[in-house]
Amino acid sequence: MNPSKFGRGDVVMVNLDPTAGHGQKGMRPALVLSTSAFNALAVVRLDLVY
């Protein structure tokens, strides 16, 4: 998926491989917290997994 298509509140699937230690790995859902305007400009993705 193109990052410019993400909007705040969207749930997207992200690949968390590789991991270190006991972290979650594989395909996991992630919530987009940044604004759509920022997502259209940014290439960096930050994931919050709990």
UniProtKB/TrEMBL annotation:
<dbReference type="InterPro" id="IPR011067">
    <property type="entry name" value="Plasmid_toxin/cell-grow_inhib"/>
</dbReference>
<dbReference type="InterPro" id="IPR003477">
    <property type="entry name" value="PemK-like"/>
</dbReference>
<protein>
    <recommendedName>
        <fullName>Type II toxin-antitoxin system PemK/MazF family toxin</fullName>
    </recommendedName>
</protein>
<dbReference type="Pfam" id="PF02452">
    <property type="entry name" value="PemK_toxin"/>
</dbReference>
<dbReference type="GO" id="GO:0003677">
    <property type="term" value="F:DNA binding"/>
</dbReference>
